[in-house]
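Moderator note: this is an archived Q&A kept for reference. The question asked for a predicted structure of one protein chain; the sequence and the answer are reproduced below.
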Amino acid sequence: MKKILNCLLAAALSLSLSSYAATTTNWTTKSNVEKVNRIGKALLQKNNLPTKINFKVIETDEINAFANADKEICVYTGLLKFVNNDAELAGVIAHEIGHIVNNHVAKQNVVGTITSTAIYNANVSSSVKAGANTVNNLTMLKMSRTEEYEADITGVDLIAHAGYNPLAMVSVLYKIGGSYADFTSTHPSGDKRTMYIYDYITYTYPDKIKAGYTTDSYKKFMVYAKPIVDERNSNPKKLAAFNKQQAKLKQKRAQKLEKYKTAKDSNGWEKTFNTFNTIKAITN
């Protein structure tokens, strides 16, 4: 049961995987761990979220991050190798915080844990168990892709309100998620994902788009994005539809921000960590 719990907790709040030229920074040094905590806690403080949470760095080549029942956000060094500056580090951490404040873990893990436990204990053949687990996993993947989009743009709002350029999210996530297929991953494909973020920034933070961003990964993303933007801008119907869609999304995000801006027990923050403890009790 503990293995099931650990897999679910890590999968629920994990970032996407990919291959890209990475930096060689040693993130497990005391100064870099302190840096991760400094930026993480600054994101919480500047967005009026509870600051009693620790950020841990775990030495592994796996490109991942997750939260746990001890109110920790754990970031793997394999993921941090893609970070080039403080704004990108803030983007990585803000994505994880985005999962927490939106209470994604409660939506997925309670159902997933109970289902997995039922399958594990069921008096059926191993082949039936395998088939049932596959169906359960694909259902969870479908839910998670939608939530990745929400965590991404929540992260954009968090870093923007903390004084970072939100285009850093585009830069770092394009490096991380640029090659994975949309259906087989819990995360949207790199191009779709970064375009979704870029579109949100275009409408919500237009001054940042004008200022641009100087990293190589952002420039590579723009090679992909510019033809899409140019075509949309040259087509009045497409542009009107885009503006209407983004206006609705901006309104929805504003309402969500109000809900977690002052973190009370009724909002997603405490619900998420209470859910972790519930799952822990179920699986012990």
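Archived answer notes: Strands lie at 54-58, 65-68, 72-76.
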